Amino acid sequence: MVLTKFGQILSDVWLDIPKHYDGVELDEWIIMPDHFHAIIRIKRKEFDDNETVTKSDSVGAIHESPQQQQQQNISATVYRNKRRKMLLSKLIGRFKMVTAKRINSVLNSSGKVWQRDYYEHIIRDEESLNAIRKYIANNPEKLNKNRLNEQQQ
98-153: per-residue pLDDT in tens? Predict the structure, then answer.
């Protein structure tokens, strides 16, 4: 993919993330014309008597869907506040805010840049990690095949 100036803004802000969040590592990622895929590794440090143990099992994700939240009778405000306190939400929120401000500055506007929310998935094993890395790496190829098919129809 050849990045536009807006794609370059996303790239610059994305690569800057580890400078703002301890224990965050960037893995495979790609900027597409109308969406973005990425793997983020979040590690939490836990202190023992004599040593520091790093765990990657605390990702700061909410595991229920909005429908489950409604079934549990949790108000939208409580749900939103719970989510905002989590590292992943803070990280994505900052990414969206900074990129939107920079893009709107270039456009001299204050328009909406991102859709609300994001999709998260906890990767629990090496096999899943490799499959998702492959999916991300092959995403541009799938886009090109779809465009070619549309042109031929």
Answer: 999 999 999 999 989 998 888 898 999 999 999 999 999 998 877 666 666 666 76
DSSP 40: E
Residues 6+ apart with CB under 8 A from 29: 14, 36, 37, 38, 39, 136
Helical axes 87-107 vs 76-84, angle rounded to 10°: 90
Strand-strand pairing, 44-47 and 52-55: antiparallel
Residue ranges with strand state E in 32-71? 36-42, 44-47, 52-55
pTM of the predicted model, to two decimals?
A: 0.70
Number of CB atoms found within 10 A of residue 137's CB: 13
Sort 45 into a burial class: Cβ within 10 Å, 0-12 / 13-18 / 19+.
exposed
- For residue 59, the SS3 value is coil
CA distance 151 to 104: 32
